[in-house]
Amino acid sequence: MNQEPHSPASCRLCGAGLRHTFTDLGLSPPCEAYVPADRLGRPELFYPLHVFVCEQCLLVQLPEHVSPQEIFTEYAYFSSYSDSWLAHAKTYAVRMVERFKLGPEALVELASNDGYLLQYFQEQRIPVLGVEPAANVAKVAAQKGIPTRVEFFSRECAAAMVREGTRADLIAANNVFAHVPDIRSFTAGMKLLLKPGGVITIEVPHLIRLMEGNQFDTSYHEHFSYWSFMAAKRMLEDFGPTVFDVDELTTHGGSMRMYARHAEDTSCPVSERVQDLLRREEEAGFGRLQTYFSFNEKVRRTKRGILAFFIKAKRAGKSVAGYGAPGKGNTLLNYCGIRTDFLDYTVDRNPYKQGKFLPGTRIPIYPPEKLRETCPDYVFILPWKLNDEIRQQLAYVRDWGGRLVVPIPELEVLE
Q1: pLDDT, tens digit, for every residue of 19-41?
Q2: Residue 340: which CATH number?
Q3: Using one digit for the tens of pLDDT, what is the confidence trace for 260-296?
Q4: Are both 99 and 212 inside the same structural domain?
Q5: Which Pfam families match (predicted)?
Q6: pLDDT tens digit string along 191-212?
Q7: Whether residues 225 and 158 fall in one domain
Q8: Are residue 257 and residue 305 in the same domain, yes or no?
């Protein structure tokens, strides 16, 4: 059944009751709540990971079970530990400066993390300001010389920034839109902060690619919403600026970068790509509620395939280690019930995570050198969206006859 008549949640955009399941991944702890060794004897809180689709506005969303303050005040995700993500950020910076003829004007990035993006604008002598709620991550940006405001962005935050004299020629909201529960206040804040003639860019995973690629592990408690282009465009133009262009990207399993401006600004005409993507989404059925109902069973089939691999490997006496400790990996492992009886350990390049344990499953996290020490038969790639980068990093696994395993969209053991 797709209807959930007893769900108390309401749509964060239109207020309609959320009655229809997109996917139900059971109970899971917050995906970035890594467990220190001295807390292994203490309990963890598990929350529903039940994603709904609104029957009125068709926004796919997760009700707010965990507050943003609890998730983001102390955060374990640092963007700078992915080489391919840094390359993506540098390319973005160069293109934005060229396309919008940016000079010594103000650039503001929302959810600026450890300064991974703003550093490339600084290299081009463009003044920058980051807004980042996680104090531990913002501290790293400040150490790089990147001015950072430690705060959750909202309409009220934007109003305070404007009173202080800050306005932006370019607002970068890259991979933050899905993380915002009060998306209306966030969008209104961007409009308020944007100078006349300024541009907003928003990067967000694309719901079409999520469904096509069976990317259920993108669902976790810090991702409050999952966007089609038609839903995002409608929301932006209802509560903020006008969308005038869109790029389709390969990052995060398939994303879109939306460009927006003040409605009265005619210097950026609406691109044909906007209507083209809207048409393709309509033809794919994303304007109909029924389209969203097929995903849940697809996810269940993938779970059975992942468990079948682990059961077969363990019955054959094979060892399996993980690579990476991303939030999406914790969704996958908790949903599938994979603990140290299946996955011996995982490794991660981020020192912040090393020596800790994955939330829920309590799988230990080591530095990457651990793989060479133990020579596992299989290495299970948890941040599979960085598959190409990681395959190059792990080419040495073949030296002892080990093989790499990619779980999504369907489990594949690489030759």
Answers
A1: 999 999 999 998 888 999 999 99
A2: 3.40.50.720
A3: 999 999 899 999 999 999 999 999 999 999 999 999 9
A4: yes
A5: Methyltransf_13, Methyltransf_14, Methyltransf_23
A6: 999 999 999 999 999 999 999 9
A7: yes
A8: no
Report how many domains make up the chain: 2
Q: How high does pLDDT run on average in the chain? A: 91
Last residue of a domain, one of 214, 247, 265: 265
* The model's pTM: 0.88
Q: Is the same domain home to 176 and 307?
A: no
3-class secondary structure per residue, the chain: CCECCCCCCECCCCCCECCEEEEEEEEECCCCCCECHHHCCCCCCCEEEEEEECCCCCCEECCCCCCHHHHHCCCCCCHHHCHHHHHHHHHHHHHHHHHCCCCCCCEEEECCCCCCCHHHHHCCCCCEEEECCCHHHHHHHHHCCCCEECCCCCHHHHHHHHHCCCCEEEEEEECCHHHCCCHHHHHHHHHHHEEEEEEEEEEEEEHHHHHHCCCHHHCCCCCCEEECHHHHHHHHHHHCCEEEEEEEECHHHCEEEEEEECCCCCCCCCCHHHHHHHHHHHHCCCCCHHHHHHHHHHHHHHHHHHHHHHHHHHHCCCCEEEECCCHHHHHHHHHHCCCCCCCCCEECCCCCCCCCECCCCCCEEECCHHHHHHCCCEEEECCHHHHHHHHHHCHHHHHHCCEEEECCCCCEECC
